[in-house]
Amino acid sequence: MTHANGKALDGKVVLVTGAGGGIGRALAIAMAASGARVVVNDIGASLTGDATGLNPGQQVVEEIRAAGGEAVHNGDSVADAAGAQRMVDLAVETFGRIDCVVNNAGILRDRIFHKMSLDDFDSVLKVHLYGAFHTSKAAALHFKEQGGGSFVHMTSTSGLIGNFGQANYAAAKLGVMALSKSIALDMQKFNVRSNCIAPFAWSRMTSSIPTETPEERARVERLKQMTPDKIAPLAIHLASDAAAGVSGQVFAVRNNEIFLMSQSRPLRSVHRSEGWTVESVASHAIPSLRASFFPLDRSGDVFCWDPV
Known about the structure:
CATH class: Alpha Beta
CATH topology: Rossmann fold
Domain Ketoreductase: 12-208
Protein name: SDR family oxidoreductase
Order of helices and strands: EHEHEHEHEHHEHHEEHH
Number of helices: 10
Pfam families: adh_short (PF00106)
Strand order of the largest sheet: 3-2-1-4-5-6-7-8
Distance between the termini: 29 Å
CATH superfamily: NAD(P)-binding Rossmann-like Domain
Strand content: 5-15%
Organism: Ramlibacter lithotrophicus
Helix content: 40-55%
Family: Belongs to the short-chain dehydrogenases/reductases (SDR) family.
């Protein structure tokens, strides 16, 4: 369902976090082009979350305005509950309402697990998981009162499947999936929807991939085809009224492919009427279930073909 001039997000007000570059920037610009008025949030930080002093979010606002769209910049951190509240307040004060929150802001602190510090873990959880909670909570009361709204959360196959050196990021991103499902369940009676996208896109978040061998360099060149703007059509749809029946789902976007990802359900069971002992678990339960064990896959093992 679109409005008279055919733009999917006409009349909508959208907050996009981490929108100074990469996927967030592409989404903010595309949503504005689709009729949305956009709050562009970005703290101007490096990949690890350290302030850079630059103001890329303001540059995105200027790009949107130059193209005839409406946008305003916010420089707060999603890791701060009061900052997240200010983002939502800015949307309501500037544009009169809030209709969609895109939880995109993120940082990386990759470390092999036994070398991961508390700060490495804590800082990543604070931005990705707590950040998604803070912005969603700030918008939830507005969504409830107006009888509708949409959350689009960025998750990752590093959490949904697995990856090396990313225990902090993976824990946060799988947490985001569970948060999204809980919001979808709790707020469905208010016509509020919540979905996840696991994006494959070349950005600062993937630019740390090693390029030491010809094979690695070739892979990176293929990854560079997966531009951030490829994520935009699905995100715009999920923010629009046309996605009224879509909630609690997890999608992935990989170049020109859109995937619906599985969610945890029982695979198989084994039963003994007399109950279990340690010995029968070892001799019966584990051998019976082993055929359905998951291998120690990484994301790249599951998505093992070239994007097209």
